[in-house]
Amino acid sequence: MQLADFDFTLPEDRIALRPAEPRSSARLLVADRLTHDDQRVSDLPNVLRPGDVLVINDTRVLPARLSGERRRETSDGSGIARIDATLALPDSPGRWRALVRPAKRLRPGDIIHFDGGLTARVATAPVDGLAPLVFDREGPALEAAIAAAGAMPLPPYIAARRAADSRDLEDYQTIFAAETGSVAAPTASLHFDAPLLAALEAAGITRETFTLHVGPGTFLPVKTEDVDAHVMHAERAVLSRAAAERLNAARAEGRRLIAVGTTALRLLETAAGDARRFHPFDGETAIFIKPGHVFRGIDGLMTNFHLPRSTLFMLVAALMGLNRMQALYAHAIRADYRFYSYGDSSLLLPGGR
């Protein structure tokens, strides 16, 4: 398939710059392959079936956007350059791969001085804008320094229209956040709040958690016209043995597994074997889900509305069919749904309600 097959036109005023308040008041487009209706996320206890299992990513977003100075000893003062770094993936204690800008200003051995006294050495030359940074501390001390010096790495389509602020420290973190390591929120989970969790529990709808640390590659555009030629970014994920066994038991009981977010879907499809049984997983997944993919791990997906020409729109097209998703997005645009990370949500049920 060609990249142009996944295009659509989105009015700029449909891009949400702030989340709904309260979180569960966001709109929810509920759709199967034939029908759809407009509801609210707070309606989930009535939309889902008793016994359904929501599979949720418990990653915590790191304030991973750092600003600093590269300083070299020169006689004319030209050794100082402003550098922005967005942490991408941890390599080892005290060492992160980071997207750096401008990458051409950096060479191996350079020291970047960030706010709060935090420093990092460039280990090797940047490749495609990605450089390994070795910090002057590790463990809790490094995490605390990053939390103090960093800003929330808002998606480019929000950051281009407003700067991150103190509200984003809470708004861009899910209620499930526990394991620190992401540079982007699993945004489908941003719609959950305490009253909704209580209502879901009362309705007999359970949840299972895993961890997938979202990297900045989730924001990178597809640059190849032939979709099959695109190389997917890798992300670190963990599904415990106990969680895998509980998911297998739920499936054996005929209960539906609903992935909350594309990260949950990617993890479940990675961990699902040929017999549709889940196996423990601890590693990196670079699974690229596009039309033609045979789903083995899920029965439904709750997800926000995605960018045109993105791998995430390709994923939902694989689940529901490209023509169906184009029609659903056209409806969402006409009906004034809010798009992207802080926007509204959809519940996609390919097997029916």
Helices and strands in order:
Elements: E1 27-31, E2 36-40, H1 44-47, E3 53-57, E4 59-61, E5 65-71, E6 80-92, E7 95-101, E8 111-114, E9 119-122, E10 130-135, H2 139-149, H3 156-159, H4 166-171, E11 179-182, H5 194-202, E12 206-213, E13 235-239, H6 241-252, E14 257-260, H7 262-271, E15 281-285, E16 300-304, H8 311-320, H9 322-334, E17 345-348
Parallel strand pairs: 1-17, 3-12, 3-14, 4-11, 14-16
Antiparallel strand pairs: 1-2, 5-6, 5-8, 6-7, 7-10, 8-9, 9-10, 12-13, 13-15, 16-17
Describe this structure in words.
By secondary structure, the protein is an alpha/beta fold. The chain has helices at 44-47, 139-149, 156-159, 166-171, 194-202, 241-252, 262-271, 311-320, 322-334, and strands spanning 27-31, 36-40, 53-57, 59-61, 65-71, 80-92, 95-101, 111-114, 119-122, 130-135, 179-182, 206-213, 235-239, 257-260, 281-285, 300-304, 345-348. The chain has a 9-stranded mixed sheet with strand order 2-1-17-16-14-3-12-13-15. Helix 8 packs across helix 9 (322-334). The longest helix has 13 residues, at 322-334. The protein is globular and about 70 Å long. It starts with 26 loop residues before the first strand and ends in a 5-residue tail after the last strand. The model has no long low-confidence stretch (mean pLDDT 94).
Mean pLDDT over all positions: 94
Compute the gyration radius: what is it? 21 Å
Classification by helices and strands:
alpha/beta
List unreliable stretches of 5+ residues: none
What is the beta-strand fraction? 25-35%
Distance between the termini: 29 Å
Tally of extended strands? 17
Helix content: 10-25%
Strand order of the largest sheet: 2-1-17-16-14-3-12-13-15
| Topology order in helix (H) and strand (E) letters | EEHEEEEEEEEHHHEHEEHEHEEHHE
Shape verdict: globular
Biggest β-sheet strands, sense, barrel: 9 strands, mixed
What's the number of helices? 9
